[in-house]
Specification:
The complex is a heterodimer of chains A (about 300) and B (about 260).
Chain A (H helix, E strand, L loop, with lengths): L4 H4 L19 H23 L10 H16 L4 H17 L4 H9 L2 H12 L9 E8 L2 E6 H27 L2 H10 L4 H30 L9 H31 L16 H25 L1
Antiparallel strand pairs in A: 1-2
Helix pairs in contact in A: 2-9, 3-7, 3-8, 3-11, 4-7, 4-11, 5-7, 6-7, 8-9, 9-10
Chain B lengths: L4 E12 L3 E12 L3 E5 L6 H8 L7 E6 L2 E2 L2 H5 L1 H10 E4 L3 H4 L5 H11 L4 H14 L15 H13 L5 E5 L7 H16 L3 E6 L5 H4 L2 E5 L5 E5 L1 H6 L1 H6 L13
Parallel strand pairs in B: 3-8, 3-9, 6-7, 7-8
Antiparallel strand pairs in B: 1-2, 1-4, 4-5, 9-10
Classes of the chains: A mainly alpha (about 300), B alpha/beta (about 260).
Chain lengths: ~300, ~260
């Protein structure tokens, strides 16, 4: 083996002047990947929360899924904003006694609400859509004040609080139940086993493939010197990565299937989890029934 | 050690896509209770042979018998045959990520016994026992992406041991493991052999050969068997090891 002469030469080193103050922001690819890495960290943190000792963590996942489903239905029938607010505050209390960091819980819920609900309800609060008493004038039309109406804002508040309450219940369920047990819970409720198996494996390998993408990006970044193009080159890299990933996932899928076959898989998945229905689950169902009755009863009194 | 041949291969040949040969006229016998090492350079066909031995791929030519029965794609379609064969032969893949596919460790280990029809109680007991045996009880509820490479390998081994197979196939078991985990694995393989398990493993690792093998089968780069012998006989055949690209002319060989 002969070493080429250029490999024996040293490349020009770091300029003694050091930094020159010229910075470039990362490309969209870098932002997407760092976002994905953040997601991975968040999921790992969430899984840790689900294993903490707490009130909701002690309940059987199947009972928890049924209970939360009942609470979701109850919340969707509540019409009073005050009762919805009370329901939301109750989820905060539940989060607290289940050992969840309340600030993290609030952020998790409210992160999506302005994006998905706020945009929808904002026009509905205007006098153009919901006529009524204008409380905040934005412009005049033929001498009439136009803007946010009290009726519109009430309807918007009702919708936002209902979404906040519902999302909080779902987040409570997912944060206090490890993913594998949540799947087992769904399986216990009659969701087809094959569907659960596919979802479980998709979730498991999503992270594996995400790690592969990050490795590929870091390998590219480690060899990129100077100006990084953020347009065509970045898009070409994304396309090449996607292609490589399809090849990798195909190979992996084949190996996973062989690993399953090697351990006797013949198309019918069997699972370990057996479900318990003890005193904790009975108390949970009683608590759910009382909470739903209070929410609906209190609502009918407030709305009357 | 009994001399009963458990696995018998007769003139096996296998090609990927009918273009890329992986095995060429390979014949071998694996006897009950023996530890057989498959040695060879990358791409010589060791992993393919292990897959043939586990009934995952089927030879294009030649025949393969396990426990006195011919193993073919058709034979493994039979429920009883499949269950009996899968229960008696366990395979630890080189890529633990492919083998550890369940949402958590306990479910991963339970997968095999449940597929073989064991009750939930018995399976749960086996899961507890095998986790304790390998010293990984604290990992039971972990998801695979929370495990290190060494931990994944331990879980993959646990998932196979829980089925209590008679024959264990290991594909490059010590590859990409840190020295401590490598040593742990070598000791585990010795312990399993003492317990009467038959072990077939593909490896490049010549250093620990005497501890993990009674007999070695050396593959050439032409996908044929180039030599057979005890670890000391093989390690003494420097010319053979050079010819099959297992050592470099400057590589010092372990002495016995």
């Amino acid at each position: 083996m002969t070493t080429p002469a250029w490999l024996l030469e040293r490349e020009a080193g770091l300029c003694p002047c050091g930094c020159i103050g010229k910075r470039r922001k990362g490309s969209f690819v870098e932002k997407t990947l760092s976002g994905s890495a953040g997601l991975l960290r968040q999921v790992m943190f969430s899984d840790d929360l689900a294993h903490r000792p707490g009130l909701l963590q002690r309940i059987d996942p199947r009972a928890k899924v049924i209970g939360f489903l009942a609470l979701l239905v109850a919340v969707s029938f509540v019409h009073s904003p005050w009762m919805l607010l009370a329901c939301y505050l109750a989820t905060l209390v539940l989060a607290g006694i289940s050992g969840l960091p309340v600030v993290f819980f609030i952020k998790r819920v409210w992160l999506f609400i302005p994006i998905f609900t706020g945009i929808v309800v904002l026009p509905a609060a205007l006098s153009l859509v919901t006529p009524g008493e204008v409380v905040l004038t934005l412009w005049h039309w033929n001498g009439h004040a136009q803007g946010f109406t009290a009726q519109g804002l009430r309807a918007a508040a009702l919708l936002i609080l209902r979404v906040a309450g519902s999302v909080s219940l779902v987040v409570l369920l997912t944060l206090t139940t490890p993913w594998s047990r949540l799947l087992a819970g769904l399986r216990g409720l009659g969701v087809p086993k094959m569907f659960i198996l596919v979802i479980g494996m998709a979730y498991r390998y999503l992270f594996h493939l995400l790690t592969s993408v990050m490795d590929m990006y870091e390998a590219r970044k480690a060899r990129t010197i100077g100006k990084q193009a953020h347009d065509r080159t970045a898009r070409r890299f994304v396309a090449a990565t996607a292609g490589a990933l399809i090849g990798k996932s195909h190979h992996l899928a084949e190996e996973v299937h062989q690993a399953m076959t090697a351990r006797g898989f013949r198309g019918d998945s069997k699972v370990l989890n057996s479900f318990r229905f003890g005193a904790v689950e009975v108390a949970w169902f009683a608590g759910v029934a009382v909470a739903a009755a209070l929410a609906l009863g209190g609502d009918s009194l407030l709305v009357r | 050690m009994s001399a009963d041949p458990l696995l018998v291969c007769e003139n096996l040949s296998f090609s990927y896509l009918d273009k890329f040969p992986a095995l060429d006229d390979v014949s071998l016998e694996v006897r009950s209770g023996e530890r057989l090492a498959l040695l060879g350079a990358n791409g010589c066909g060791k992993s393919t042979l292990l897959k043939v031995l586990d009934g995952l791929v089927f030879p294009g030519a030649g025949r393969y018998f396990a426990f006195g029965q011919e193993i073919t794609e058709d034979a493994l379609e039979d429920e009883q045959m499949n269950e009996a064969f899968r229960g008696r032969v366990g395979f630890v893949f080189q890529n633990s990520d492919a083998q550890v596919f369940s949402p958590n460790v306990a479910e991963e280990i339970a997968f095999g016994p449940l597929q073989l029809g064991l009750s939930r109680e018995e399976t749960a007991q086996r899961v507890t026992d095998v986790l304790a045996m390998l010293g990984i009880s604290d990992l039971a509820d972990r998801t695979p992406f929370q495990l290190s490479g060494g931990q994944k390998k331990k879980v993959a081994i646990a998932s196979v041991l829980a089925m209590n197979p008679e024959v264990l196939l290991f594909d490059e078991p010590t590859a990409a493991l840190d020295p401590r985990t490598q040593m742990w694995l070598i000791e585990l393989m010795a312990q399993l052999a003492e317990a009467g398990k038959t072990i077939v493993h593909a490896t490049h690792d010549l250093d620990a050969l005497d501890r993990i093998a009674d007999r070695c089968l050396v593959f050439g780069e032409d996908h044929r068997i180039a030599g057979v012998g005890t670890p000391s006989q093989i390690l003494a055949s420097r010319d053979l090891l050079l010819e099959v690209n297992l050592v470099h002319e400057h590589t010092p060989l372990p002495s016995f």
